[in-house]
Write a structure and sequence with these properties.
alpha/beta, Rossmann fold, PGM_Phosphatase
């Protein structure tokens, strides 16, 4: 019988971000109080799973989301830079019209190609690095399950790639809520199933910035 391995992609919980900044890869953005509860809810969801390997983005919010899982399974958290947030020109700014960065002409040239996208890390490169991180996790947990804590856009683009859908998309259509779990089931090296659930559904709400 072919060996089954599951790699779970866990998005981090809600972030403390009262200014509504697109924080991206900026340091110092921690989980909110609701975000900490979300991380605990996710860890509880995994409690009866066969998790033998735990990986995380280097971002503080991801590491804080991984912490309850590390405690529950007595596992070290292995930092994998390939799980980090997508690069974005608008990092550190508020995004939108009115008082947002879109009212400033110097930013308009970064919006000319939504298919690449022109404002940040190309979708194909993002999918490739996330796929490499998943393969590492799969190999580390052969016959068992691994958890990779990452971010909304990287997880969603990888899912689109896995399901052979186009990578460009509208941010509001991402099925990747806070502390959600996107699971990739492999038989040997072959991907056989993609599933999704929200262990922390009902806790807190989405921040006003996409790609978190």
């Amino acid at each position: 019988m072919t060996e089954k391995t599951i790699v779970h992609l866990l998005r981090h919980g809600e972030v403390h971000n009262p200014g509504g900044i697109l924080y991206g890869r900026l340091p110092g953005y921690r989980l909110s109080e609701d975000g900490l509860l979300m991380a605990k809810a996710a860890a509880k969801w995994f409690s009866d799973r066969d998790v033998t390997a735990l990986f995380s983005s280097p971002m503080q919010r991801a590491l804080e989301t991984a912490a309850p899982l590390a405690d529950a399974f007595d596992l070290p958290v292995t930092v994998d830079d390939r799980l980090t947030e997508a690069d974005n020109h608008f990092e550190g700014l508020t995004f939108g019209v009115g008082a947002g960065s879109l009212r400033r002409p110097e930013h308009w040239r970064y919006l000319i190609n939504p298919f690449k996208p022109s404002w940040g890390e190309p979708y194909r490169e993002l999918a490739a690095r996330m796929r490499a991180a998943v393969i590492r996790a799969r190999e580390s947990a052969r016959g068992h399950e691994a958890v990779c804590v990452s971010h909304q856009l990287p997880v969603w683009v990888l899912r689109l790639h896995a399901e052979r859908r186009r990578l460009w998309h509208h941010p509001v259509k991402r099925e990747c809520g806070l502390a959600s779990v996107t699971s990739l089931t492999f038989e040997g090296n072959r991907l056989v199933e993609v599933s999704y659930c929200e262990p922390a559904g009902g806790l807190g709400g989405e921040p006003g910035v996409a790609g978190a």
